[in-house]
Amino acid sequence: MLKAQQFIGQALFYALVACTIGYLSSRPFYAGFPQDAAQIKLSFSHGAAHREACRKLSYQEIIKLKGSERRPSTCARQRMSVRAQLLLDGRTIYDAVLQPTGLWGDGPARTYQKFVVPAGRHTVEARMRDSGREQGFDYENRTMPDLRPGQSLAIDFRADSGGFTFR
Questions:
Q1: Alpha-carbon distance values, 48 to 97, 132, 141 (Å)
Q2: Range of the domain at 22
Q3: Is residue 67 one of the residues assigned to a domain?
Q4: Is 55 part of any domain?
Q5: Helix, strand, or coil here: 121?
Q6: pLDDT tens, 87-137?
Q7: Hey, CA dihedral for 86, 87, 91, 93, is it positive or negative?
Q8: What whole-number distance in Å separates Cα of residue 132 and Cα of residue 107?
């Protein structure tokens, strides 16, 4: 008799745990993203120009190098920083100076940013400067998407494709 009561008690306990887990898996309701908003994602990895131009080595400099290290020119490894801007309807929502990665500052500059924006028609402009110039931008692109609620606009950068792409 005692054995049967233990089994019934265990069954009731397991049923209570299962019901609690079932309830907590659907409540409280959590919305990770507002229902009436859209999202813009800016993501790229880009290696800017080198800080110093390559320099031709003289004959005497080449001779001083080891046989396996001889080359006609030498180039500094360090790259310039990248300035990136993102404008939404003429208002700046992202403006950053991205430093090159890597031990010697010779890797690409990287960013990944998300922006929650109201759904609707917007003017989105992406700009980037990756050279030594002080004013202006080397790459600029603009689009006018009509973002639906829950839609995501991805902005990527590919120098070999002409700059920013919007998808």
A1: 12, 10, 18
A2: 1-30
A3: no
A4: no
A5: strand
A6: 999 999 999 999 999 998 999 999 999 999 999 999 999 999 998 888 999
A7: negative
A8: 17
Name the pairing type of β-strands 37-46 and 152-158: parallel
Q: 146: which 2 tokens?
A: 């009509």
Task: Work out the percent of the chain whose per-residue pLDDT is above 90.
Answer: 63
Measured distance CA(155)–CA(167) in Å, rounded:
6
Question: Would you call 43 helix, strand, or coil by DSSP?
Answer: strand
Residue 52: which pLDDT band, with cuts at 50, 70 and 90? Answer: confident
Q: What is the pLDDT of residue 32?
A: 77
Token duo for residue 109: 């500059």
Give Rg (Cα) of the chain: 28
Angle CA(110)–CA(120)–CA(116) in degrees, nearest 5? 35
**DSSP letter, residue 79:** B
The tokens describing 13, both together, are 């306990």
Residue 69 forms part of a structural domain: no
**Residue 40: which CATH number?**
2.60.40
- The structure's pTM equals 0.74
